[in-house]
Amino acid sequence: MKTFIRWQGNKSKHINKFIQYIPHFTGIYIEPFLGSGALLLKLQPKKWIINDINKDLVNIWKYVKSDPQGIIDIFTEFGTYFKPLSKEDKVKYCKEITSKIESMPYDIERASVYLLMKFCSYMGHILHKNTFRFSSLDLNILINNNYSFLKENTYNNIQLVSQFLNNKSGKIFNKTYEKILDKAKEGDFVFLDPPYIESHNYKFNYNKDEVLDDSFIQQLFLQIKKLDERNVKWLMTQADTQQIKDIFKDYTIKKIEVYRISSKSYVDELLIMNYEM
Asked: Distances in Å between the alpha carbon of 15 and those of 6, 42, 43, 112, 256?
């Protein structure tokens, strides 16, 4: 089962490089920085807790669970109007829609529009300096006239994800990651895919009012030490920086190579875990 959303840091293409490091666990799968949920949908655990501080993202997951057909209907209606437009009018229409997201209630319409604009925008970026803004069309639309988000297999996948979310024993939260980690106990497994702190030239935000600095990493370190004290196994993905290697030097660290679309290059990332494989 694949993820249904374009999200920065999506691990879909890299899962096979680190799934071998997922330990056997009998408790709850816990993911406090959910994002695209690629690993959750790959593992399909029987019991799970997923969370993200991004309210729009959580809103989307909740409506995929509760009303997948409603989302598909909105997608279909959008496609009927959107596809015949010229490229210039497509951009104009998307700019108009994106500018309205902030004022919309957190309902199925907002969830669907947010999803659609992530698919339509270049690199999936619609949040720039805390403001919802549409800059340009995704290259697949611009060059190839490709609408993957309006195809039957996309709709089928949304339905499959909804079935999984409803058939398993799980909970969806919109809280700080610290509050979610407090729920972890021995026997559970925690997958951490936090925002990376590294030199970059990103022109987008992951979340509104996000502050990523050294204090974020130090707080994260303190939180995983609490997991250690409760004998909770955890695996974290991280940027390959000297700061990260120094802070987490007492843990098992593996290096994997990943391709970043934003820079069109291969870079090393780190897998950090509090157990041996």
From this structure: 16, 8, 10, 26, 11
CB atoms inside a 10 Å sphere around CB 240: 17
Residue 23: DSSP 8-state:
P
CA distances from 197 to 181, 216, 217 (A): 20, 9, 8
Using CA atoms, how far apart are residues 273 and 275, in angstroms rounded to an integer? 6
- Residue type present at position 12: S
Give the whole-angstrom CA distance, residue 247 versus residue 222: 11
Q: What is the pLDDT of residues 7-53, one digit of tens each?
A: 887 788 889 989 999 999 999 999 999 999 999 999 999 999 999 99
Please state, in angstroms and rounded to a whole number, the distance separating the CA atoms of residues 155 and 43. Answer: 21
Q: Helices 108-120 and 55-66, interaxial angle, to 10°? A: 110
Name 98's Cβ contacts closer than 8 Å, sequence gap at least 6.
Answer: 117, 121, 126, 132, 133, 134
Asked whether 1 and 161 are in contact (CB, 8 A), the reply is yes
Cα 130 to Cα 101: distance, rounded to the nearest angstrom: 12
Phi, psi angles (nearest 5°) of residue 42: -75, -45
Whole-model pTM: value is: 0.92
Query: How many other CB atoms are there within 10 angstroms of residue 180's CB atom?
Result: 23
In sequence order, the β-bridge partners of residue 272 are 236, 253
For residue 11, CA distances in Å to 2, 34, 38, 184, 271 come to: 11, 11, 6, 23, 12
Angstrom distance (rounded) from CA 74 to CA 170 = 26
Which pLDDT band holds residue 196 (cuts at 50, 70, 90)?
Answer: confident
Query: Could you tell me where the beta strands, DSSP code E, fall in 112-251?
Result: 127-128, 131-132, 169-173, 189-192, 233-239
